[in-house]
């Protein structure tokens, strides 16, 4: 009797140990916006972050003190629980500075924006963005950049230093590729690519910002934040009008280039950055994405042009094409005002952009949705089945895909791909139904749900502080499930139910 | 003859008092006046191409584009971009941000749902602008509650941190 | 020039630079193709 208690306590201790570490890393990250506030003399905000750091540290230290005896060996199940638990705790604790600053109407709204940030979605409930302090904006954008890198990856990079639990935590996060043989080096590889782009991208946007008319310091911070939002395909922006604020085609195009690159698979970045540059046009995902993006854009633009929604080619590009690509990469930057989607766009264009949101970007990236690899596998499977039907009975047909190297398309890959696509679609249906049941019309419901499940961030007006609280909770769950790709969340719920049964 | 001329002159005098009618180009003046920026966006097809009058706080920056400039205004419901010749914006002193409440202005201009001159943006081409009330610095006092919470939470965090350090230090000694 | 970065990754600056340029150009080409199609559609 007592031995089972000890075993269960030890299992929990391991979970607590790793979760505690993640909390301390989170507290450390909060120092960045704190210093930002200090630099700009935003004293009340400095205190808001001090409180956030303190409470997060209290949780972290408490977990480490209680669970200090836990073993460092972590099972697959336990790592899934650590991931889910960390996300939940991080959501609650990171909302403290938001709520204290006064720009969110309720704690739920603050948590919504935190989850939106970490999952790199980009839906916003914060108010009065145009009067927001630098510290809070720094936190908003840093959250999405960090979220894109994965909270767990972060903790791995700085804390574990070779402990065996590392690989399992990494897989739980939803990134199931291996860039480097050692998972610690994989996370460092991801950081390398991200940090180099961070410097290059911020610099380019900074200079462009100055040319666009922003004052020098502001241009730098906006450049940094907009880059972080683009790279992480998050879609937050420091002003209420999102990218519209800059009123510049050049600024828009640069954000577009960076958010498309940001939606690429990290394996692709690594291949291209280590000499294998041909991969960029051979990779299943870039090919699939290029085809689906072009086809869906053509459909949408055709209708937008036919209905005279936009008067000329430049407008169709900046409002239509930009929006479709922003949707497909699951970024969420907006060059039109939210309500214009339902007011101006026709049904075909809306359908095309909703499908784009669901298809999403590449796997092993910050993008959401089905993921290009699964869409590619699905299409290839259809081609394979048709070939089989048309070929003589005894013919042997092998279908291959190219991801770094040529891989035979086996049944098990197809099964997993189709299962995940199915789960995403079901989730989307459920969220659409809930939104519709709350009183929103069907096209808006489908649009906004796709935006949440696919971690996109485009809004047609549904996301609003006045939306029903139950809907806010549903969207928080939707964004979370979409980002963690079902696995970690299912295990978490499964374990929870199993513990209740005992 | 002189009676007619006199009547005509008096008529012109009174008309000129009524808001400089002659400076407006020959476009229809909207019968429905938008009350808020949100209204403009919601009924953009109704207001498209018409002259509208809208009020709001200047936020952000005046973006200089050489021949013309952009500003953005916020009226509590939504924000919108306004562009025009630079001189129109010369009377703006305060632009809203964390520390500043921007000038509250009234803009009269041509509303476009998808402005072909600006890459299809929904905007207003300003014809005239007036500052209704000048902006000012915003005070951000620190509440007593906040100071208290900060003190308590950071103290507890520091104590726990020190305990943890001690425990770890001891562990390392004994291992 | 193969300078090993301090955190033990097999990268050198030249490959990094070429890689980044490849990605940026690849994306620009994609956008250009889309733009051409849109331009054609708008003329119909």
Give a structural overview.
The complex is a heterotrimer of chains A (502), B (175) and C (44). Chain A has helices at residues 2-29, 31-39, 43-66, 76-101, 107-118, 134-149, 151-160, 166-172, 183-212, 216-231, 249-262, 266-273, 279-282, 284-306, 313-328, 340-344, 347-359, 372-390, 411-437, 442-453, 469-484, 487-501; strands at 400-403, 405-408. Chain A is mainly α and 502 residues long. Chain A has a domain at 2-262. A two-stranded antiparallel sheet of chain A has the order 1-2. Chain B is elongated, with a radius of gyration of 28 Å. In chain B, strands 1-2-3-6-5 form a five-stranded mixed barrel. The model of chain B is unreliable at 20-28 (pLDDT under 50). In chain B, a hairpin with a 5-residue loop joins strand 5 (104-115) and strand 6 (121-133). Chain C has one helix and no strands. Chains A and B meet through helix 3, helix 15 and helix 16 of A and strand 1, strand 2, strand 3, strand 6 and helix 4 of B.
Secondary-structure-based class of chain A equals: mainly alpha
Q: Could you give the order of the helices and strands of chain C? A: H
What is the β-strand count of chain C?
0
The number of helical segments of chain A is 22
Q: How much is the average pLDDT of chain C?
A: 83
Greatest chain-chain contact: A-B, 54 and 50 residues
Major sheet of chain A, described briefly?
A: 2 strands, antiparallel
- Say what oligomer this is: heterotrimer
Helix content of chain C: over 70%
> Shape of chain C, please?
rod-shaped
Catalogue the unreliable spans of chain A. Answer: 158-164
**Percent strand of chain A:** under 5%
SSE pattern of chain A, N- to C-terminal:
HHHHHHHHHHHHHHHHHHEEHHHH
- Helical segment count of chain C: 1
Strand order of the largest sheet of chain A: 1-2
Terminal Cα separation of chain C, in Å?
A: 53 Å
């Amino acid at each position: 009797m007592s031995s089972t208690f000890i075993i269960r306590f030890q299992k929990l201790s391991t979970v607590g140990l790793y979760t505690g570490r993640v909390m301390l890393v989170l507290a450390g990250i909060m120092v960045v916006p704190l210093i930002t506030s200090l630099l700009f003399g935003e004293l009340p905000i400095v205190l808001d972050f001090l409180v956030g750091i303190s409470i997060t540290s209290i949780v972290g230290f408490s977990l480490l003190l209680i669970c200090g005896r836990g073993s460092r060996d972590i099972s697959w199940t336990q790592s899934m629980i650590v991931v889910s638990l960390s996300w939940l705790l991080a959501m609650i604790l990171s909302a403290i500075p938001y709520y204290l600053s006064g720009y969110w109407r309720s704690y739920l709204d603050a948590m919504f924006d935190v989850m939106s940030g970490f999952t790199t979605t980009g839906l916003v409930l914060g108010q009065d963005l145009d009067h927001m302090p630098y510290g809070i904006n720094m936190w908003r954008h840093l959250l999405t950049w960090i979220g894109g890198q994965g909270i767990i990856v972060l903790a791995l990079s700085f804390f574990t230093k070779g402990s065996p639990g590392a690989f399992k935590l990494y897989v739980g996060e939803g990134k199931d590729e291996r860039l480097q043989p050692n998972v610690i080096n994989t996370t460092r590889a991801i950081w390398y690519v991200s940090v180099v782009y961070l410097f290059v991208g911020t610099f380019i946007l900074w200079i462009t910002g100055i040319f666009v008319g922003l004052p020098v310091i502001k241009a730098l911070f906006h450049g940094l934040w907009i880059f972080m939002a683009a790279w992480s395909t998050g879609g937050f922006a420091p002003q209420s009008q999102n990218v519209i604020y800059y009123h510049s085609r050049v600024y828009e195009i640069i954000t577009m280039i960076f958010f498309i690159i940001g939606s690429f698979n990290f394996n692709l970045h690594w291949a291209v950055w280590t000499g294998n540059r041909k991969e960029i046009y051979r990779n299943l995902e870039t090919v699939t994405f290029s085809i689906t993006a072009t086809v869906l854009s053509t459909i949408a633009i055709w209708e937008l042009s036919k209905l005279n929604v936009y008067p000329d080619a430049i407008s169709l590009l900046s409002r239509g094409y930009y929006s479709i690509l922003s949707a497909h990469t699951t970024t969420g930057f907006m060059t039109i005002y939210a309500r214009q989607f339902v007011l101006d766009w026709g049904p075909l264009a809306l359908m095309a952009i909703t499908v784009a949101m669901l298809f999403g970007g590449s796997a092993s990236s910050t993008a959401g949705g089905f993921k290009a690899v699964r869409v590619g596998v699905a299409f290839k499977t259809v081609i394979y089945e048709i070939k089989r039907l048309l070929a003589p009975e005894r013919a042997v047909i092998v279908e291959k895909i190219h991801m770094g190297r040529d891989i035979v398309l086996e049944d098990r890959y197809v099964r997993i791909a189709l299962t995940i696509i199915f789960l995403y679609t079901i989730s989307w249906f459920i969220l659409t139904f809930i939104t519709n049941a709350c009183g929103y019309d069907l096209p808006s419901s489908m649009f906004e749900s796709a935006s949440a499940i696919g971690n996109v961030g485009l809004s047609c007006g549904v996301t609003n502080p006045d939306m029903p609280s139950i809907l806010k909770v549903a969207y928080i769950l939707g964004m979370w499930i979409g980002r963690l790709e079902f696995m970690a969340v299912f295990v978490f719920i499964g374990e929870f139910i199993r513990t209740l049964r005992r | 003859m002189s009676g007619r001329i006199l009547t005509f002159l008096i008529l012109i005098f009174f008309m000129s008092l009524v808001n400089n009618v002659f400076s407006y180009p020959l476009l229809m003046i909207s019968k429905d006046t938008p009350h808020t920026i949100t209204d403009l966006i919601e009924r953009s097809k109704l207001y498209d191409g018409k002259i509208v009058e809208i009020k709001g706080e200047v936020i952000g920056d005046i973006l200089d584009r050489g021949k013309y400039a952009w500003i953005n205004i916020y009226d509590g419901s939504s924000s919108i971009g306004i562009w025009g010749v630079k001189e129109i914006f010369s009377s703006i002193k305060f632009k809203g941000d964390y520390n500043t409440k921007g000038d509250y202005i009234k803009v009269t201009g041509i509303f476009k749902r998808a402005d072909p001159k600006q890459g299809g943006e929904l905007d207003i081409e300003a014809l005239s602008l007036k500052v209704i009330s000048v902006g000012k610095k915003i005070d951000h006092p620190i509440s007593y509650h906040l100071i208290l919470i900060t003190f308590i939470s950071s103290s507890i965090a520091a104590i726990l941190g020190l305990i943890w350090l001690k425990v770890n230090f001891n562990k390392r000694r004994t291992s | 020039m193969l300078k090993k970065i301090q955190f033990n990754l097999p990268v050198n600056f030249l490959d990094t630079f070429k890689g980044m340029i490849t990605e940026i150009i690849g994306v620009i080409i994609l956008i250009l193709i889309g733009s051409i199609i849109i331009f054609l559609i708008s003329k119909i």
